């Protein structure tokens, strides 16, 4: 056993399952472990744009050069000319994200793009490039350079200006080997598609709020992707439903099974689209007019339906949601506004493999009684407890959090929370504002129970009031620890729900919009899996040059975390 734990292949397998803090701990065991685990700290690295007072915190140039070969994901927030040789030594990159917002003194946009082009030119391993966003128009050269990356299969651009020439270069690049393209708020200049231009390899296409390209041209783009699997479309304006249906039914995209339409659609429009589609596996229609006619058209897709998002659809009723849950055996993800206890208990659910449940639950009694017995809450928790594959659970909709115009489920041990002890795979839990009406001690006990029983929990979403929920002392006052402390001590990320805006803030102040949670594309095709491109943004590793220096280095590392620089 001792010898096995010195084998590089064994240590690599172990390291791939550890977070950065655990890797640091393993590096203290012995020199052999330090040698094997240190490169894992450099798998992803962010070159941050730092304020002048923080410049000394950046790893020195020699350390960057030493570990350049270990970097797989690189985020560039500053294209520092002094680091060009470091960039050129990052030969093992799988993914690069260019997010620079400021031009270094003495540079112009052309020089910035020249350095980026030199960095990626003919890069043998590079599979994903993200331009997100850069405040200067891309040059023709950088588009031509990206086209020469032999393994590039994922491209994401945002707020990029593409004139007539750049648009042609962009489309040519996209028509080569790209399997996934996301164009977000890019500005085109009335582009034209050559008659022979086909995006043969494209599997996943996201066109979101693009400007300068007409709705008709966007649908033409869709029709030129014969092997497309997923289409995400965000558009403000009238939709040519007839043309979209012709594409879906005419054989232009025979493998298209995932539709994410964040556009203005009436109930009758959606019904036509669902009738035209040959098979639907994933469907997102938030804020649309999905109603009775759409539901009728959806039923023939029940046997294949895996993911569905009907958030903020005012015509979607609780019985509709219940019918989907009890009829779709292959369902893995569902998001909707409301589901009543009276419907939940009516029929068992067929979706035993459900992984994501994001629905506001109402427990109002059929008679209109707004003070239902605790047994009603427990019945709901018992049904949820049967979903043993869940890794994402949200039981409060934004409408409930904003208005409390119904009687949402209670989050407490008395109400039956312990029925969810079966959810061993849960990594995300959201109750939004449901704990706000709890007694602080009762709320603390609920959070304590979650921490003890959901061992894989990574993210917890609630209102800021959990910060004052603590254990109850002998004098009925709150004493330490508090619920927030329990979560953070376990390394669980706390996201504060803000009902005044559509979305949530995490503890670092970053804003997340709700729609993003529900797009669970796995992007798998042959040997291609977007999970390979998970980006762990952090400031960068530290240099453990000797055992004696470990304590100081670790303290520095923790300070960077605390300051939000790591």
TrEMBL record:
InterPro entries tied to this protein: F-box-like_dom_sf, F-box_dom, LRR_dom_sf
In which domain of life is the source organism classified? Eukaryota
- The residue range of the signal peptide is none
Coiled-coil intervals in this record?
A: none
Give the matching Pfam families.
F-box-like (PF12937)
F-box domain location, by residue?
8-47
Task: Give the protein name, as stated in the record.
Answer: F-box domain-containing protein
